[in-house]
Every structure is written in structure tokens, then in C-alpha cells.
Design goal:
Number of helices: 5
Shape: elongated
Structural class: alpha+beta
Bound molecules: zinc ion
Order of helices and strands: EEEEEHHEHHH
Distance between the termini: 60 Å
């Protein structure tokens, strides 16, 4: 990092501090030539995730969509906002850790369903019925049966 005052190449870090939930680091640096101090910010590069929808159109990933979907499914259930946040976080980090920048919306739906299934049965079934867009009662009953079988 060059000194902004004298352009000298070598500066040393005199202090580091985390900012914004640890996603940014603020560093106080000192120029080894003119001894002036300045501040730099270091941030994690967050690449955008692109969601490919059923009709093949694309849009930027928006965590609020998962959040609202899960909130709707968990309405009047014993699931706290903190637990819903944690589910959204777990889905998002799986996507962030993947090398693929494009993900299918169905994959995000599956991850959300999986997170719900471990948390609350009723919320899971509600979410599944909206998300899977069951064509008829039979399709819904099949999904329900699979769910009940897996629990045994
Ligand atoms: Zn300097």
C-alpha cells in the first residue's frame, strides 16, 4: 500500500479493527518514510449470485425472497425470527461457497425446504405445497407420504 502523502511504497499497519460484523477490516497504517498515518478498508469480495428461474430468465439473488418465503411458511408457528434468519444464512452460505455463480431457483427452493424440514413440520409442508405447486391432491399426498416415510 503506497503512502498517499509521499508515495513511498512501504507502510506498516499500526492498528487493525473489524467493522460491520467482521466483513470489513479497518487498518491504520503508518508510512515508513514520512511517518504520516492513514486508514484503509479491506472487504471480502462478494460476488453476485445469479438465479436461473424456471423459464430460464435470470435475476440477481435476493436473500429477502427466501426470508419472506420462510416467514410466510412459519406464520403462527413456534419458530423465532432468529431461527428463520439462521435458515436463510445457511442457504445463502451454501450458495456463496459454491463456485457456480449461477444457480437454479429450484435448487434454492430445495435448500430452503430442507432447512424447514428440520425445524418445523407444518411450516415445511406449507412451504412445499406453495413451492412445488402441487397439481392435485395426489401429488401433495405423495410428497407428504415421502416425508412421513423418511421420518421413520
Ligand atoms: Zn509517506
Amino acid at each position: 500500500m503506497k503512502c498517499p502523502y509521499c508515495n513511498f511504497e512501504d507502510t506498516k499497519v499500526v492498528e487493525s479493527r473489524c467493522a460491520e460484523d467482521g466483513l470489513k477490516v479497518r487498518r491504520r497504517r503508518e508510512c515508513e518514510n514520512c511517518l504520516k498515518r492513514f486508514t484503509t478498508y479491506e472487504a471480502v469480495e462478494q460476488l453476485p449470485i445469479i438465479v436461473v428461474k424456471r423459464d430460464n430468465s435470470r435475476e440477481r439473488f435476493d436473500r429477502k425472497k427466501i426470508l419472506f418465503g420462510l416467514m410466510r411458511a412459519c406464520e403462527k408457528r413456534a419458530v423465532s425470527m432468529a431461527e428463520i434468519e439462521a435458515m436463510v444464512q445457511s442457504v445463502e452460505s451454501i450458495l456463496q461457497n459454491s463456485l457456480d455463480r449461477e444457480v437454479k431457483s429450484s435448487f434454492i427452493g430445495d435448500l430452503s425446504m430442507e432447512a424447514l424440514r428440520r425445524k418445523d413440520e407444518v411450516a415445511y409442508i406449507r412451504f412445499a405445497s406453495v413451492y412445488r405447486q402441487f397439481k392435485d391432491v395426489k401429488a401433495f399426498m405423495d410428497e407428504l407420504k415421502n416425508f412421513l416415510d423418511e421420518r421413520k
